[in-house]
Amino acid sequence: MTARTLAGLILAGFAAFGAWTWQSSLQNPELLETLPSAEVQGVYIRQAAIVSPGPDGQPLYRMVAEEMSQALNSNTFGVTGVHLDYGGPGQGRWNLSSDSGEVTLDWSNIRLSGNVSVEYLGEGNAATRLLTHALVLDALTHRASTAGRVVLQRGAERIQATGMSVDLIAGTVALESGVNGHFAP
After folding, report:
1. CATH of domain 42-182
2. CA-CA distance, 116 to 135, in Å (whole number)?
3. pLDDT digit string (tens) for 2-36?
4. Is 60 exceeded by the pLDDT of residue 97?
5. pLDDT-based confidence at 156, cuts 50/70/90?
């Protein structure tokens, strides 16, 4: 055996020993326990915009939120600074806004709270605005409702009530009880 062959065998032996030592260190559970790990706690998005199509494929509603967040194991996500534009082509538009809200992951239920405003912008009509503290929007039936106090405004006219239901597709508003005010036809 030549010196060159012997040196090659020694070098190969050192390389094999080094590889075996390195692999053993990777399988050492004590070493793995001391390594830091990162866990995802949730998702946080700023300036989020989400568009949902209607049956015809055209945008039915568009939600814009200043902030949107979701905890890892939650079936809802929270939103702040919410603006929701709702309606199809050829009809008036509904604009909903609130300080905050909560949306289910399947988008079937949207809860708005804090300075909730529901405004209808019909063609050729003055804007009609409904103000309340909390509102639930069922995105499957396109109905928004509240059991709380509501103020309906159109121009200088004002009506107060307790409870309301709005059909966002048909464009109808039903005030439920304690209706008080003056509204000229």
Report:
1. 2.60.450.10
2. 7
3. 766 766 666 666 676 666 666 666 665 555 566 56
4. yes
5. confident
Q: How far is CA 12 from CA 9, 21, 24, 26, in A?
A: 5, 14, 18, 21
Choice between 14 and 113, residue whose per-residue pLDDT is larger: 113
Rounded Cα–Cα distance for residues 99 and 118 (Å): 13
Q: In this structure, are residues 105 and 75 in contact, taking their beta carbons and an 8 Å threshold?
A: yes
Residue 125 pLDDT more than 70?
no
Distance from C-alpha of 135 to C-alpha of 133, rounded to nearest angstrom: 7
Identity at 62, one-letter amino acid code: R
- Distance (Å, rounded) from C-alpha 137 to C-alpha 62? 14
CB count, 10 Å around CB of 97? Answer: 17
Q: What residues contact 164, with CB distance under 8 A and at least 6 apart? A: 130, 132, 145, 146, 150, 173, 174, 175, 176
Indicate the pairing of strand 128-138 with strand 109-121.
antiparallel
CA dist 149 and 110 (Å) reads 19
SS3 (DSSP) at 25 = helix
φ/ψ of residue 162, rounded to 5: -115, 120
